[in-house]
Amino acid sequence: MALTLGTILQGETIDPGEALAIRHSFVAMHEDGEAGIHADSTDAEILAYTSRQSLTSRHFPADPPRTWLVFVTDGSYRARLWRVLENHGEVHRDDTLRHFDLRETGALADLQDRLVIHWPAPITWRVHGATAADYPVLEIADAAREPFPGFDRLRLSHATLQAVLREHRYEHWRSALSSVAGIYLITDTRDGRQYVGKADGAETIRQRWSAYAADGHGGNVGLRGLDPSTFRYSVLRVFDRATPQAVINDAESHFKQALDTTRHGLNGN
Question: Which residues are in the GIY-YIG domain (predicted)?
């Protein structure tokens, strides 16, 4: 059975019946004088371009759905996934265009710029999601490897942490995090409260952070019940995995005291 876009969407729990699929062509200028996009357009330019749509319901749905699957042309009958956007409604309109508040969702993030589907009618630039769900997948390109920035430069949101532990392009990051024990810091960016944790010799930083990626709290009482979407993860100090546990425990205690995370943070002890 051929792999289709619908199969991909099921894995992300996106309902094609509640989605709109758009395929942008590269056109410098449209007949109505509206500026188009090109192969070197920035993400911000593509987002702005997508947010402007026709006033005429014949050209664009009067009540477009919440989810927009946005592709760009990749040849005559090919469409490459750009982003999955969430439509927060029309914000204003002028004499010719409606302007929408569109926001990136992070859905299918690991397939952005990699997933290519067959788009059977290039002249048709938008279709209902249920129609696009039947379009076959032509290619899922290899992801470009992201170079590991070094432990001192790690500043990961919860969404990025999940991507690091899942996506092929972060393979080098996973290898680095698997090679060390250490002391790490979780900061709740909403209020600045912090949590100091450790991964000792029996558990690498990658293993410890995998628990946070899975449930947000990793079993820590101080983090339970908090929304991890605003958490930021960083590394304070790394150790060889053969380092005695007592040394790692002392380092953890030092950072808890230095950052005062027991009295004014998220550490329970």
Answer: 179-266
